[in-house]
Amino acid sequence: MKTLRNFNNPQLKGICTSLILCNILLWTINQILQLVGSHDTRLTDTSVKTTSEELRRKQDPQGSIIPDDLTFVDNRWKLSNLCKPYKTFSNDSKFPLIRYTSNAGSVKIFTHSLGDGISSIISRAGAFEVKTINRVLYELQKDKNINLIDIGTNVGQHCIAAALIGRDVIAMDAAESNIEHVCASANYLNLGSRITLIHNILSDSNGKRKFRYSASKSDYGSIHVDSDGIWEKMKKQYNTYFSLKTVEENSVTLDDLFLIPQIHKFKKVFIKIDVEGHEHRVLLGAKEFFKRLEVQGIVMEWAWHVKRQSSEIIKTLMAEWKFKPYKFFSTTESDLSSVHSDKWPQDVLWLPI
């Protein structure tokens, strides 16, 4: 490539001026250089199509920082307007302020009422699945430029912890109530400038997807997209926990994130994904995402993929993108490549080869 670029030398151009063949050669080299540049698909300021400032929330008149909250509807991004100042929920029994503790520190966050399984565990133990939260923090702290993509954020444990250590986060969830809770916590903790919230199902295409809530509509632990046979698997384990009816929610892909201005902060990312057996669909909608961003690793819930075809889809994609699976501990990991995936643990860490 250095040899090609030397054709820009003024002296060499002078020699070639009168030679038609040399002019043709210079033109050809220029086309080659442009072609090479066009295949550099890493995220740059000019490679990402962004929308206007309409996708950024205006600051609260009282100076309170509320996260940008977006949704993808009818093939375009817009503000969801789910976020409200935390004081809106000060006396709301569905928004208790509970102590939450991780390696990022001990703070109070807004959880669901304690009839919700995850919120109840946070209230009793300080966190739900704290081992996974702390491993995500460990991965983020390897490089100050790594930011977090939190898919299936629930009440925001991972994204709040990441923001507390100074990282930017895009956090996504299909449930309106989860988005409202994370927003209230971010506002309360003055972390609103670091967190962008997205209210959508993450999947492999845009449009509508069937989503199933709990029968009580007050427990948000295993709510899920009803596709690819996951409902049959869920029924066997939870029986009467879920509503028999589904509702339609709008879906979006990870590749669609290149259309929002906030993505410019996310050149290096770590991904946490916990969407109750829909992880394979999320990855199928992320092919450009993995080409254009530097994905440093993924923590993924695996349990719902045991003995499902989705496990093969995930393993194929991860191999194509050159990631290996690991069982993880606080700061170490063991290779799972030689272990049958039906024997893998609840959560799996994928790291670049």
Automatic annotation (TrEMBL):
Residues 150-315 form the Methyltransferase FkbM domain. InterPro entries: FkbM_mtfrase, SAM-dependent_MTase, SAM-dependent_MTases_sf. NCBIfam families: fkbM_fam (TIGR01444). PANTHER family: METHYLTRANSFERASE, FKBM FAMILY PROTEIN (PTHR34203), SLL1173 PROTEIN (PTHR34203:SF15). This is Methyltransferase FkbM domain-containing protein.
